Amino acid sequence: MPTSAIELLKSRSLPMLIEEEIQRVILGGEYSPGDRINEKELALRFGISRGPVREALRSLEASGLIEQIPNRGVFVRRLTAAQAADIYDVRAFLFALAGRLLAIRATDEEIARLRGFVAAMDEAIARDDYDHYVRENFALHEFIVEHAGNPVLASQYLSLIKQLRLYRSRNLMLRDSIEASNKEHHEMVDAIAAHDPDRAQAVHLNHVATAKDRLMSTPNLT
């Protein structure tokens, strides 16, 4: 009997759903960089066979979040400082292009959303609410790249961000760094609101470059 369309859809979507859940667990901090991922334990956790888990792990390896080490198993990827610096350099130019493109095409509604993210971060800083600041920070950056009008750029940028979260997950930003970063966010949004692509490109590039400098100057990072 031929496979029905619904069954085919389920067989294709399950590994994707499992991949998203494993990614959420990793980025949520349940696994640390260098931790071993047990395929059998994940299958038992999700109540499924090991096939979809294996497929999900292959996809996550391609995205750079995990790595397969021969004769040892699957591990959450551990980024070195040099690898993180290389990713930051690529990220800077992608983000600069996103800022430039959005400055050309941004609508009033999109500009209002951007100002809302920055205002929310200002409020989070005032309350010393680091977790809320981080959520709004990620939301702002994702909004910019997803509304720049270039899906390839957005896909590549967001993949790099996931990898960098492995490196940054255990490293809290100091209040002075957060305040400096949000000042740069204001400059980015102002350039987009002015529909000034050259200025937007420059301030978006500078934002990531200074973020890299701040992270790399933090003591005891490996």
Write the SSE topology.
Blueprint: H1 5-27, E1 36-37, H2 39-46, H3 50-63, E2 66-69, E3 73-76, H4 81-105, H5 108-126, H6 130-146, H7 151-168, H8 175-193, H9 197-216
Antiparallel strand pairs: 1-3, 2-3
Helix pairs in contact: 1-3, 2-3, 4-6, 4-7, 4-8, 4-9, 5-6, 5-8, 8-9
Report on the structure:
With 222 residues, this protein is mostly helical. The protein folds into two domains: 72 residues, Arc Repressor Mutant, subunit A; 136 residues, GntR ligand-binding domain-like (Four Helix Bundle (Hemerythrin (Met), subunit A), Up-down Bundle). It has a three-stranded antiparallel β-sheet with strand order 1-3-2. The longest helix is centred in the middle third of the chain and has 25 residues. The termini are far apart.
Outline of the structure:
This protein is mainly alpha-helical and 222 residues long.
Range of helix content: over 70%
Give me the Rg, rounded: 20 Å
E-strand count = 3
Report the principal-axis shape.
Answer: elongated
Text of the CATH class of the largest domain? Mainly Alpha
The percentage of residues in β strands lies in under 5%
Assign the structural class, choosing from mainly alpha, mainly beta, alpha/beta, alpha+beta, or little secondary structure. Answer: mainly alpha
Q: What is the CATH architecture assignment of the largest domain? A: Up-down Bundle
Distance between the termini: 56 Å
Strands side by side in the biggest sheet: 1-3-2
Give start-end ranges of low-pLDDT stretches.
1-6
Supply database-style keywords.
single chain, 222 residues, mainly alpha, Arc Repressor Mutant, subunit A, Four Helix Bundle (Hemerythrin (Met), subunit A), 2 domains, 3-stranded antiparallel sheet, 73% helix, elongated, disordered N terminus
